[in-house]
Amino acid sequence: MNHHIRALHTNKTITVYQAYAPALGLPAARTGRFPAAWKRDRMTWIKPSFLWMMYRCGWATKEDQQTVLAVEITREGFDWALRNACLSHYVRGLHADQAAWKRELRRSPARVQWDPERDLHLNALPCRSLQLGLSGEASRSFADEWTVSITDVTDRAREIHGLVRDGEEEAAARLLPEERPYPAGDELLAHLQA
């Protein structure tokens, strides 16, 4: 299965998505910063794919995921996380053995999971999309250093979902973020692909 990172990105930033309860998501969007209540010591998962985020949060309907945020972060921070990430599962041939993988996982501040990309109906596609888990140093850096802006895109998500339900797929597709291949290259991804 094909692995790739498609994202909305510029020369300096990449946009990733997260979903939160309104009590956390709304203040973050209002100020453009994660509030003190955002737990910097917990693992947080970021998703460059808007439709994968919609699959995960049920178009902003799941409990504690009713506010969808587009978080623009520095490419420098995102690339650092990829460079310092470990796969979230053991892969024979990529890791020396399970013990070596577990040691790498324990010391890595980031982890990568490749999940099936989604279409407008949230059906799985035959390619895999990146999820990046951040903990410790990576999580704190994400919240307090890498974040450039935070935008509430919940209304947009609901509008797209409404169009999909009404059979207006072309109109829905026009509202999607313009995600294109992210130039990660082998240097960043070789240790993260099975």
The largest pleated sheet is described as: 5 strands, mixed
Assign a percent range to the helix content.
Answer: 25-40%
End-to-end Cα distance, whole Å, is 10 Å
Mean pLDDT across all residues, rounded? 93
Structural class: alpha+beta
Choose one word for the global shape: globular
Number of strands: 10
Number of helices: 8
List strands and helices in order, with pairings.
Layout: E1 2-4, E2 6-7, E3 13-20, H1 22-31, E4 44-46, H2 50-57, E5 67-74, H3 75-83, E6 85-87, H4 98-107, E7 110-118, E8 124-134, H5 137-146, E9 147-152, H6 154-165, H7 169-175, E10 180-181, H8 185-189
Parallel strand pairs: 1-8, 6-7
Antiparallel strand pairs: 2-10, 3-5, 4-8, 5-9, 7-8
Structural summary, described in words:
By secondary structure, this protein is α+β, with helices and mostly antiparallel strands. It contains eight helices and ten strands. The strands form three sheets. Strands 1, 4, 6, 7 and 8 form a five-stranded mixed β-sheet that branches. Strands 3-5-9 form a three-stranded antiparallel β-sheet, with helices on both faces. The chain has a two-stranded antiparallel ribbon with strand order 2-10. α3 packs antiparallel against α5.
